[in-house]
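Exercise 7.
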Amino acid sequence: MTIVRWAPSPTGRIHLGNARPALLNWFFARRNGGKYVLRMDDTDLARSTLEFADGIEVDLEWLGITPDLLVRQSERTELYDAARDRLIADGRLYPCYETADELDRRRARARALGKPPIYDRAGLKLTDADRAALAAEGRKPHWRFRLDGRPVQFADLIKGTQTVNTASMSDPVLIREDGSYLYTLPSVVDDIDLAITHVIRGEDHVSNTGTQIEIIEALGGTVPIFAHHNLLTDAQGQGFSKRLGSQSIADFREAGYEPLAIAVMAAITGTSLPIEAYASLDEIANRLDLSMISHGPARFDPVELDNLNARLLHTMSYEQALPRLTSLGLEGEAIWMLLRDNLTKFADIVDLASLVTGPVEPIVADEDREFLALAKALLPAEPWTIETWSEWTGALKAATGRKGKALFLPLRLALTGRHDGPELKSLLPLVGRTACLARLP
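Solution. The predicted structure, written as tokens, is:
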């Protein structure tokens, strides 16, 4: 069975860049009848909060993602401790006592000598007496994983065959001096324990994959299939970041965007699928294959988002809109079908509905008063139909000789108080003759 995971850190509100892998994993799981695991990487106790974790769940639900399983790394420490002990017993995890300053100096010295600034494995050369002496000085060790130092090759579903040579890398630190775990070991242990079959994540993790494969193999686990997608950037080409305060999913929600518009922009940007008004996430899942993801950057365009949001509203059925219309105190299929083509955000309908229900502040130019007085006198009797507008304007054209903008714009401004809006031929039957008479001077 296909099992994927999305693993956010609850250290802030998620943004579009975070939503991209969340959605790509969801589409992959749906397309393959698989299972979706939400894993909270909350081992950073200083920065992770329950509020942010709850916010992530709210954002996923709003986007349309329902995880099959939720796990929190903060509740799984025993698993990581057992893996730690096994790696130590096997000689793959070893203690190191250098301070950050000492490591910086060593790297600088290596660069000056034209050597790669990788860790020299001094910790492996320490004797028991050396370690005891360092401990007596008050030093506490951090723990590094001893890499095999070999080319690690893996098949990537997006980028093709990849090779990461761990011989050119420092042995990674898996445990800090205070005993807390960095990202790598808990992630690998969870992937093994949860039987993750596919890891779909950003291409900035490619270099980590060689290390993680070696740790998985050292722990006797099954290596999952990897897929590293291109990263979403903003309109200026800069990556989205919590640290930089990038606009969050919650910000887009509060601004009135449709969740499907955000999902399309976050996931479909930078693929061969078109940015268009899809019917649902399932439709995207059925159409999107990982091979469609470009190898180039995926640049988010806020103008394209606005256009897409409008297109989704313009195709929304009355049945889909009804619960939201009811919450706004608006009902009636005729009003929805009339106004939806003029919406950019759903909330815009409140203002537009006043064109039907009133009140309206007419805009009347002095030079048009005589024309509008005649228009009032020639206003047809009810009942009104879709043909009433053409009958009325035809009579006015014959009486005044006006045509085009000179004929239509003064009527629109007087009846609606705005230069744009729905077609008046459709609006008039909903407004009615009495209200139109009141709006004409």
